[in-house]
Amino acid sequence: MRKTLRFLISLAVALALMLLFRAVGMTIYTIGGDGLKPTFIAGDRVLVNRWSYGLRVGGGASDFFSYGRLWRQPVAKGDIVAFEDPSDGNIVICKCKGLPGDTLEVDGETIVVPGLKDCADADYYWMEAISEGNDTDSRLLGFISEEYIIGRVMMVAYSHDPNSRLWEGWRYYRSFMLCQ
Question: Taking the alpha carbons of 162, 164, 168, 170 in that order, is the dihedral positive or negative?
């Protein structure tokens, strides 16, 4: 009886630690389609570092708590970033092309990315899709406020073809592939 109770307590503690780590440390998102080719393909599971820009507290699509970041770090140009779509809360992965204060030429128009230095309410970023044909980026969503940014995509943890059976379709050659 004591061994069983000790085992159940150990299992509960391990589960709680895993959930805590996933909530504040790293998390995995599944790439659903081929809109991010050639960097990511359908079935890739990407590891996102939630601490890369500081730990996000509140904000985002949930808006239950007010937004804040502990140990805030700015997003760097060229980073592959996971963020919440401000309109529906879906996870989007794009490359950062514009930082607060940058002047960009987009579709023949000159735009300035707003930031706190420009008296904006937050720092904003211009995110562009990784592949040419994908338009789920700042051209469709507008500037992305830092409160919606989850973290930097670190690597493809593992990959499985979504059209294959569970025991088939593992793409081992994509495992632990670092993102640039």
Answer: negative
The single-letter DSSP state of residue 116 is: G
What is d(CA 55, CA 136) in angstroms, rounded to the nearest whole number? 25
Q: Alpha-carbon distance 120 to 77, whole Å?
A: 20
First-to-last C-alpha distance (Å) of the chain = 52
pLDDT per residue as tens digits for the range 91-110: 888 889 999 988 888 888 88
Alpha-carbon distance of 81 to 14, in angstroms, equals: 29
151: amino acid identity, one letter: G
Is the pTM of the predicted complex or chain greater than 0.85?
A: no
- Which stretches does DSSP call E strand in 85-176? 91-98, 103-106, 109-112, 124-128, 144-145, 149-159
User: How many residues would you count in the chain?
Assistant: 180
Distance of alpha carbon 124 from alpha carbon 132, whole angstroms:
22
Which token pair is 64?
A: 């239950």
